[in-house]
Protein backbone atom coordinates (compact mmCIF):
# COMPACT_ATOMS: atom_id res chain seq x y z
CA UNK A 1 0.00 0.00 0.00
CA UNK A 2 1.18 3.52 -0.79
CA UNK A 3 0.94 6.48 1.58
CA UNK A 4 -2.00 8.81 0.97
CA UNK A 5 -0.72 11.99 -0.63
CA UNK A 6 -0.89 14.97 1.72
CA UNK A 7 -1.83 12.92 4.81
CA UNK A 8 1.07 13.24 7.27
CA UNK A 9 -0.82 11.54 10.11
CA UNK A 10 2.06 9.16 10.86
CA UNK A 11 4.36 12.20 11.25
CA UNK A 12 2.04 13.93 13.72
CA UNK A 13 0.07 11.40 15.82
CA UNK A 14 2.76 9.10 17.25
CA UNK A 15 5.51 10.00 19.66
CA UNK A 16 9.09 9.37 18.54
CA UNK A 17 11.54 8.71 21.36
CA UNK A 18 14.72 8.70 19.28
CA UNK A 19 16.47 11.85 18.07
CA UNK A 20 15.71 13.13 14.60
CA UNK A 21 16.98 16.14 12.67
CA UNK A 22 15.55 19.29 14.21
CA UNK A 23 14.19 17.38 17.21
CA UNK A 24 17.16 16.00 19.17
CA UNK A 25 14.90 14.82 22.03
CA UNK A 26 12.43 13.12 19.69
CA UNK A 27 8.84 14.37 19.49
CA UNK A 28 5.75 14.02 21.64
CA UNK A 29 2.52 12.55 20.30
CA UNK A 30 0.34 15.03 18.46
CA UNK A 31 3.22 17.34 17.56
CA UNK A 32 4.09 17.88 13.91
CA UNK A 33 7.53 16.46 13.07
CA UNK A 34 10.15 19.06 12.15
CA UNK A 35 10.88 17.00 9.01
CA UNK A 36 7.29 17.10 7.74
CA UNK A 37 7.24 19.40 4.73
CA UNK A 38 4.41 21.83 3.93
CA UNK A 39 2.92 19.28 1.51
CA UNK A 40 3.03 16.62 4.31
CA UNK A 41 5.88 14.64 2.77
CA UNK A 42 8.88 13.57 4.88
CA UNK A 43 12.10 15.49 4.24
CA UNK A 44 14.25 12.57 5.50
CA UNK A 45 12.36 9.73 3.79
CA UNK A 46 14.89 7.18 2.55
CA UNK A 47 17.82 8.97 4.22
CA UNK A 48 20.06 7.52 6.95
CA UNK A 49 18.96 10.15 9.49
CA UNK A 50 15.35 8.96 9.32
CA UNK A 51 14.47 7.32 12.67
CA UNK A 52 14.18 3.53 12.71
CA UNK A 53 10.66 3.91 14.15
CA UNK A 54 9.56 5.81 11.06
CA UNK A 55 11.05 3.27 8.68
CA UNK A 56 9.19 0.49 10.48
CA UNK A 57 5.81 2.20 10.25
CA UNK A 58 4.24 0.89 7.05
CA UNK A 59 0.93 2.11 5.62
CA UNK A 60 -1.96 -0.33 5.83
CA UNK A 61 -5.70 -0.17 5.18
CA UNK A 62 -6.35 -0.48 8.92
CA UNK A 63 -3.93 2.29 9.89
CA UNK A 64 -4.72 4.71 7.07
CA UNK A 65 -8.48 4.26 6.90
CA UNK A 66 -10.41 6.18 4.28
CA UNK A 67 -9.05 9.66 5.13
CA UNK A 68 -6.28 11.54 6.89
CA UNK A 69 -8.69 12.15 9.78
CA UNK A 70 -9.30 8.41 10.20
CA UNK A 71 -5.53 7.80 10.13
CA UNK A 72 -5.02 10.41 12.86
CA UNK A 73 -7.75 8.80 14.99
CA UNK A 74 -6.33 5.28 14.59
CA UNK A 75 -2.74 6.32 15.24
CA UNK A 76 -3.74 8.48 18.21
CA UNK A 77 -5.68 5.60 19.77
CA UNK A 78 -2.72 3.27 19.20
CA UNK A 79 -0.44 5.83 20.86
CA UNK A 80 -2.71 5.94 23.91
CA UNK A 81 -3.00 2.16 24.08
CA UNK A 82 0.77 1.66 24.00
CA UNK A 83 1.80 4.55 26.27
CA UNK A 84 3.86 3.31 29.24
CA UNK A 85 2.02 3.69 32.52
CA UNK A 86 3.68 6.03 34.98
The N- and C-terminal alpha carbons lie at a distance of 36 Å
Count the domains. 1
Helix proportion range: 25-40%
Largest sheet: none
Total helices: the number is 3
* Shape designation: globular
Question: How does the helix and strand content classify structurally?
Answer: mainly alpha
Write a structural description.
With 86 residues, the chain is an all-alpha fold. It has one domain. Helix content is 28%, strand content 0%. The chain is built from three helices and no strands. The longest helix is centred in the last third of the chain and has 15 residues. The chain is globular and about 30 Å long. The mean pLDDT is 93.
Output the keywords.
86 residues, mainly alpha, 3 helices, globular
Secondary structure: elements and pairs:
Layout: H1 52-56, H2 61-64, H3 68-82
Gist?
The protein has about 90 residues and is mostly helical.
Amino acid sequence: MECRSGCGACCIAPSITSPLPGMPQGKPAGVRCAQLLDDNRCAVFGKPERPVFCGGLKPSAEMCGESSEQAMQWLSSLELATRPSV
